[in-house]
Predict the 3D structure of the following.
Amino acid sequence: MRLARLVSCAVLAALVAGGCGSGSGPKGNPSAVRVVAAENFWGDVVRQIGGSHVSVTSIISDPSADPHQYESDARNAADLSDARLVVVNGLGYDDFMSKLLDATQHTGRVVLTVADALHVSGGDANPHLWYDIPRISEVARAIESELAAVDPADKAVFATNRTAFDASLAPLLRTLAEIKRKYPGAPVAYTERVPQYLLDAAGLTVETPPGFARAIEDGNEPSPGDAQKMYDLVTHRRIRALLYNAQATSPVTQHVQDLAHTAGIPVVAVTETPPPAAKSYQAWQANQLGEILRALGG
């Protein structure tokens, strides 16, 4: 996997020069729990559960950037210096956070790793956990628990908000069930494993050669054999839809898209972070699920 680059020595030097204190506290509400999320989709879940009692900063939020290539900076280190709760994805997706956390250690800070909360591990585990919609409620409960631990006075608020969050996932689960009912086992392909959990939950069959997807995810050229298998899937119309990562394209993935367009196979873009127009994690995933549903019916 293309691991996120570790924070540079220059960043650490800037942090030391600026000091490692706890900071001035959250803007606008000094009593709010200061939270830093490595990615903005987890930051949005924290925001929904914490409400006005949290102040959330998300480090990865640029929808036009490849998250795997993210480089930390001194501002990120400063944000972490006074955070009470830090949420990271884990599984190597945001390894840049490890050095940042080591450089900004302070007493009382809690780090929640989503992969640990979901008990997902292993060197080849798919790190795109936010696409596992049926299990997002488990992440929400873990966030609620950590917020209640650092701010027990607002425990009831966090519980109420988490219940509302769980209820808001119902339309997504209904769409997954609809896809599963209408198109059971339908063959699809992706350029890399970003939507794997989503497709599994929808009961679809992924035909992409594993070696092809892994090479693309690692930023490498797929082997000639894997590439040809992928091209044949498309040109011979053995799939109902092609999903591609719009934030990490290459000549190879562009060629696969071109072949799909020529073959008349619907192409669906998925992203690793929400686009600016998405008002919430739920809205982002609802839009992508809707695109997949339309593609399968096209």
